[in-house]
Amino acid sequence: MIDRGCESLSDRQKFVFDKHVVNKCATRECARCGDDIHWSEMLGAYDNGGLCGWCHHMREKVQEE
Which position among 4, 48, 50, 56 has the lowest Cβ density within 10 Å, counted as fewest Cβ atoms? Predict the structure, then answer.
């Protein structure tokens, strides 16, 4: 899937991927600003409470002050 994209998955593989990865781990919208979260940021958003990269950066910056 990573090498050839979602289109390379069979229907059954896509069902499993959607059920166990996308529906559980995907954070589609930032919890703070509401912007869409890109695939490349989703794992980070999942780990940081649902924030996009910018909002996470700003939260960390405020906590440092």
Answer: 4
